[in-house]
Amino acid sequence: MNSIKYLSNNTALLRYVVLVVLTLQTGSIFAQDSDALDKIQPHTRIVKHIDETDRITLKGNRVSQLDNSVDTGRIDDNLRLNRMILNLKSSPAQQAALDAFTQAQQTPGSPDYHHWLTPAEFASHFGVAEQDISAIKNFLTSRGFQIDEVAAGGRSIQFSGTSAQVRNAFHTEMHQYIWQGEQHIANASNPQIPAALANVVDGLVNLHDFRSHARKQQAQTNAATPLAKPISANQTQQSEILPVSEIVIGTTNYLTPADYGVIYDVNPLYTSAINGSGVKIAVLGRSNILNSDITSFQSFSGLTANPPQTIITNTDPGIVSGDQTESTLDVEWAGGIAPGATVIFITSSSTVIGDGIAYSASYAVNSNVGDIISLSYGACEQYMAQAETNAWSNLWQQAQSQGQTVLVSSGDSGAAGCDASNSSTAVSSTGVNGLCSSQFSTCVGGTEFKDTSNPSSYWLTSNRSGSTANALSYIPESVWNESASVSGGSGLYASGGGKSIYFSKPAWQVSPGVPADGQRDVPDISLAAAKHDGYIINLNGNQWSVGGTSAATPSFAGILALLEQYNGGRQGNINANLYGLYQLQAKSGNKYFHPTLSGNNSVPGQAGFSATGAGYNLATGLGSVDANVLVKQWHNVNPVSSSVALTSSASNFVSGNPITVTATVSGAYPTGSVQFKNNGVALGTPITINNNVASLTTSALTTPGLTPITAVYSGDGNNLSSSSAALNETVMAIATITVTVSAPTITAGQNITLTATVTGDTPTGTVQFYSNAVKLGSPVSLVNGVAVLTTNALTTTGLDNITATYSGDSLNTGNTSIAVSETVLAAKAQSVPALAVWQEILLGLLLFTTLLRVQRVRAG
């Protein structure tokens, strides 16, 4: 009994051990087997009859706010609850394989490095089996629910029904509550499901209307102010969104994309035509926006018109106050930093208990829309039910497997992440944004410029001619904190950060300054967020200034769009690379990051975390970035494999003649040089690569024969060194041919022997002899470099020019000899000998006989 009790109390531990073993085993498989993914497939796990009387409770499916709320009773049974989300889970073996696979996707040299999946491929390996999804759908419809959507990734189902149907199917009542003066709807207890579904169903993630909130608060009572009206000091302190009339007013400087280009070193990328072209940024929202605002912002910023694409996933939410501001900011600044990128605005209507942001996020991932996903909303992690945080983490892991990079703002309430940023004091202790605490998202915090003591060192007093920029250089940064805990501040406005209560520290979160707390720490990265140097936006036809981590997040999405264009496409989860680069920087490498020099995110009622410039901190993470260095040296921590393809201007050429060899290097935008070699011996000095290509023209190849040419690439911070395959070139010898004759003088028609001797690289082929350019017979084959012709065809008297032409072969050039002079004499006249006497008598008798015959013929 004791052992049974021990096992029961340690089920979670045993499951964890099994999962670790499975992960290690499958990790090894993925590292070695290019077909390992094909072996992972979903299997049916609902194998028992669905018995309504045999039920289990889904723990972690009730929000903790209810513990401090006033229950005002059950809601109307007929209240329609649209688009509830039933979250499904992979099997332990599938999850272990998924963890190993997503790690392999980020490991250079792995067969699955940057092997991104489609949602359908994800479902075919890591989703729930079709038979199980059908069984769950049948269960829901049998209880009266309507099926709205089965996610393409195979791990969630959206369905709708009434409050009474929820009570009957899941054995939990829907009640009304009052929490901190707000009225809410939520399930009074954890839901129950038939035990047969337990292996597949993870939880009901939105049986409440405690929705995520924009990380930037809506403007208070400020009306849209005409551009001629100056900003006032009290406005600066009272609101996070401010009307502005100029880019520079007194000592306050407002950020434009052109300022960003100077401060964060983006301009060198722009001058190299790196502007995000070909990259898609998905901005998530739950309000519509005015395209005229985007057009005005781009025109004001001097950008080429590039309107966003808008996708409405369910019904048009229309213009929603506050949410419109957030979405407008995100769309304008994502495209403002990456003016060549395609910004896709995905928006969804919220339902009675459904958060439009959750629907937008699900659409972006399950429709694979956006290489980069930018989300400026959040919810207190400790207020979220664990099933809900699991659902967000699972969704972001699917996004990683598809190569999508997820950016989420860390929050604007400092260390008190569970309190509203406009609150006067914190009451809920520390907390972080549960939408960014997963290891599969990159959490973006906020800094502020340390420019108030000497602004003229960093800002011009007016904008440059023809530009909206007045920034002079990078400006040192401290933790963004404009809360009431600092002079001139108000509320809890400061960079969100701290440690997760649900997620353990991922293996990659290692760098100087990272706490040894065993938990996932956020944020990962930060950019400017202070209202003091706020971001200009165009909203409802007017210009405003906005602060907060919700401005830093889409701006970093723009920088990542430049990074993806430069480095060849989707990067997936960038966190391991970020922390790896920071470790390199700590070893005196390139300055990818600007460490945060000072400050903290303490707010009234809650002590926070401090920065010293010495390393990572829980207020701004790794600090801000130097965009040019980050983009161009992205692969320094994990250089990718390169390859060299070698071509030449000719496959064969004459010894000593010029030839051009060209090496084309493939990799992550390789730089460095290429050394060309002949038989392993260097040909000249290394040639610098220009646009992936290095060429060498040389006349140094003089040794006849088959010559192997290779090209050796040096490698750089992003690319491993590599060598080309040998390109076998044929160097042809310059053949020489000489002719000799057997006699310098002959008489016409006399036999003469002509000999041609060919020198070169063991020449073969034939020789054609000529006399005065007229062929003498047929070509004669060479034997050991010699061709011989005996002829009596020289009959023209006088001086004849004898030449020989060598045909050439694969290793020797053809050639013609120098002419050899041959004297041909006329033949001597021959005398006729006298006839003998008897010959004369006989000839006479013949003649006499002939004459007699002629006379007789006439007489007759």
Would you give an account of this structure?
This protein is of the alpha+beta class and 860 residues long. It folds into four domains: 203 residues, no CATH class; 420 residues, Peptidase S8/S53 domain (Rossmann fold, 3-Layer(aba) Sandwich); 87 residues, Immunoglobulins (Immunoglobulin-like); 90 residues, Immunoglobulin-like (Sandwich). Helices cover 23% and strands 26% of the residues. The N terminus is likely disordered.
Write the SSE topology.
Layout: H1 2-9, H2 11-32, E1 55-57, E2 70-74, E3 80-88, H3 92-105, H4 119-126, H5 130-142, E4 146-150, E5 156-162, H6 163-170, E6 174-179, E7 182-187, E8 192-194, E9 201-204, E10 213-214, H7 233-238, E11 241-243, E12 248-249, E13 252-253, H8 257-263, H9 267-271, E14 280-285, H10 291-300, E15 309-312, H11 323-337, E16 342-347, H12 356-366, E17 372-375, E18 377-378, H13 386-401, E19 405-409, E20 442-449, E21 477-479, E22 498-504, E23 519-522, E24 525-528, E25 535-539, E26 542-546, H14 549-566, H15 575-586, E27 593-594, E28 624-625, H16 627-632, E29 643-648, E30 652-654, E31 659-666, E32 673-678, E33 681-682, E34 687-688, E35 693-698, E36 705-713, E37 722-723, E38 727-732, E39 736-741, E40 745-747, E41 752-759, E42 766-771, E43 774-775, E44 780-781, E45 786-791, E46 798-806, E47 815-816, E48 820-825, H17 837-859
Parallel strand pairs: 14-16, 14-17, 15-16, 17-19, 19-20, 20-24, 30-38, 40-48
Antiparallel strand pairs: 1-8, 2-6, 3-5, 3-9, 4-5, 6-7, 10-18, 11-26, 12-13, 20-21, 22-23, 25-26, 27-28, 29-31, 31-35, 32-33, 32-34, 32-36, 36-37, 36-38, 39-41, 41-45, 42-43, 42-44, 42-46, 46-47, 46-48
Helix pairs in contact: 2-3, 10-11, 11-14, 12-13
